[in-house]
């Protein structure tokens, strides 16, 4: 069994690192080596990795060698592409960095993509757009495809009509704890295929994914920003408008307190504003007519909703693409009645003292609620809203920032759902397993874990423990 006390694990000896380096095409790094700090860096500047050794993999054989090394040393393994969601400092662990495994192959006829473990969504968006196709990407193009998809993948552009990104995975290649490279699909290893799609990184190192693309070359999308003092009016109008919209229309709400930084549009700097985001795959005329009632709610500070090529979808949410220091956490809501609107306004509205950079409410439904043809472990179907709080600031303000996010989520507890989106869990959050997946789904995941990772090597995450 992997030692629970990671702090007690000794350093990796130079001769052992040299033996691994001799087996791989990529790079092996110990603390103090040139390049170690670059490879352990993550997107969130308030978190860090301190692994005993880093294997920068270039191919599947490198991953297999690194996993075998970890087994021999009785060390846990953490897989890193960008580090947007780091759950553990990985002290004493083996970190497998995958960013060099960045091949992208587009099958225009079959409407599929095959990507390596280190590919970012920006890579897939650009490659697919050349043949008029689009993926179920997230709101930030700098996020890695693998981790996002294994956690479900909540696409704010196509998800309401197509479902979760995990629903459209055709096959994966994964190195399991025994060092075996497995081709996993619905026929070859159905239980592992079910668990990987939604169970995050609990079952091995995914080295490649194959998934569906969609014939969407353009969108009518963007955001409308309103004065923050009109938050209640905007929220009431938006929630009343949502039920009448087709699945081809995706929308979200956010309350924003953005800093006075050059990357922020000038009208939004150092002001409290609220915004509605839209992504619609129909015509410009239909989209414009559809959102006209919302445009009429209040005078807009800024309106960016327009026809756009799919390659511009990152502009809808306009999230940071360079590392920043932040704390974030999210929950699902089972409903959002009038009382919840009033509560949210009280918690983060114009008269609150909330310092949150973003309090975001995404409306789900549609295909997000439907089981795919090949079911998977995604746990959040049937829950109509995702609520996320993001506080930005240095680690010296850690407790204050965490408390600010907690104030939002705890305040909305009366409407909280009974499951969680694993991609929106905080790094140091350790909810009960049933709170993430629900008890029945968790028991099935734990049984798969017992088969493929009985010693819990892949545990530096929101962990599914092997069934006993």
TrEMBL record:
<dbReference type="Pfam" id="PF08031">
    <property type="entry name" value="BBE"/>
</dbReference>
<dbReference type="InterPro" id="IPR016166">
    <property type="entry name" value="FAD-bd_PCMH"/>
</dbReference>
<dbReference type="InterPro" id="IPR016169">
    <property type="entry name" value="FAD-bd_PCMH_sub2"/>
</dbReference>
<dbReference type="InterPro" id="IPR012951">
    <property type="entry name" value="BBE"/>
</dbReference>
<dbReference type="InterPro" id="IPR016167">
    <property type="entry name" value="FAD-bd_PCMH_sub1"/>
</dbReference>
<dbReference type="InterPro" id="IPR050416">
    <property type="entry name" value="FAD-linked_Oxidoreductase"/>
</dbReference>
<keyword id="KW-0285">Flavoprotein</keyword>
<dbReference type="InterPro" id="IPR006094">
    <property type="entry name" value="Oxid_FAD_bind_N"/>
</dbReference>
<keyword id="KW-0560">Oxidoreductase</keyword>
<protein>
    <submittedName>
        <fullName>FAD-binding oxidoreductase</fullName>
    </submittedName>
</protein>
<comment type="similarity">
    <text>Belongs to the oxygen-dependent FAD-linked oxidoreductase family.</text>
</comment>
<dbReference type="InterPro" id="IPR036318">
    <property type="entry name" value="FAD-bd_PCMH-like_sf"/>
</dbReference>
<keyword id="KW-0274">FAD</keyword>
<feature type="domain" description="FAD-binding PCMH-type">
    <location>
        <begin position="47"/>
        <end position="216"/>
    </location>
</feature>
<dbReference type="Pfam" id="PF01565">
    <property type="entry name" value="FAD_binding_4"/>
</dbReference>
């Amino acid at each position: 069994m992997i030692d629970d006390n990671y702090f007690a694990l000794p350093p990796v000896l130079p001769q052992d690192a040299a033996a691994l380096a001799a087996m791989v095409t990529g790079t092996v790094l110990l603390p103090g080596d040139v390049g170690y700090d670059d490879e352990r860096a993550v997107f969130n500047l308030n978190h860090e990795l301190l692994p005993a050794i880093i294997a920068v993999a270039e191919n599947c054989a490198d991953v297999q060698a690194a996993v075998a090394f970890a087994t021999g040393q009785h060390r846990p393994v953490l897989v890193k592409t960008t580090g947007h969601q780091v759950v553990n400092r990985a002290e004493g662990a083996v970190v497998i960095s995958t960013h060099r495994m960045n091949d992208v192959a587009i099958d225009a006829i079959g409407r599929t993509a095959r990507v390596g473990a280190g590919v970012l969504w920006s890579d897939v968006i650009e490659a697919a757009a050349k043949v008029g196709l689009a993926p179920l990407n997230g709101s930030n193009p700098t996020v890695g495809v693998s981790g996002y998809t294994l956690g479900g993948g909540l696409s704010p552009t196509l998800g309401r009509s197509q479902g979760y990104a995990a629903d459209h995975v055709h096959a994966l290649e994964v190195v399991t704890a025994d060092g075996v490279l497995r081709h996993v699909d619905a026929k070859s290893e159905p239980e592992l295929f079910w668990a990987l799609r939604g169970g995050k990184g609990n079952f091995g190192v995914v080295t490649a994914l194959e998934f569906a693309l969609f014939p969407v070359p353009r969108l009518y999308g963007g955001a409308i920003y309103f004065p923050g003092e009109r938050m209640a009016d905007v929220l009431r109008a938006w929630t009343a408008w949502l039920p009448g919209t087709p699945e081809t229309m995706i929308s979200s709400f956010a309350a924003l307190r953005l800093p006075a930084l050059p990357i922020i549009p000038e009208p939004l700097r150092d002001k409290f504003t609220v915004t509605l985001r839209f992504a619609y795959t129909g015509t410009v005329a239909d989209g414009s007519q559809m959102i006209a009632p919302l445009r009429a709610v209040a005078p807009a500070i800024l309106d960016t909703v327009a026809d756009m090529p799919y390659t511009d979808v990152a502009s809808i949410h306009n999230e940071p693409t360079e590392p920043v220091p932040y704390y974030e956490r999210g929950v699902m809501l089972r409903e959002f009645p009038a009382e919840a609107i009033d509560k949210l306004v009280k918690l983060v509205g114009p008269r609150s003292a909330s310092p949150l950079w973003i309090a975001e409410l995404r409306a789900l439904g549609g295909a997000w609620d439907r089981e795919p043809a090949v079911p998977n472990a995604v746990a959040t179907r049937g829950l109509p809203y995702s609520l996320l709080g993001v506080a930005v600031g240095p680690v010296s303000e850690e407790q204050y920032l965490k408390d600010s996010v907690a104030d939002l989520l705890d305040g909305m507890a009366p409407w909280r759902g009974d499951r969680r989106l694993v991609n929106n869990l905080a790094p140091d959050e350790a909810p009960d397993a049933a709170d993430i997946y629900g008890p029945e789904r968790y028991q099935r995941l734990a049984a798969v874990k017992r088969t493929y990772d009985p010693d819990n090597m892949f545990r530096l995450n929101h962990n599914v423990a092997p069934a006993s």
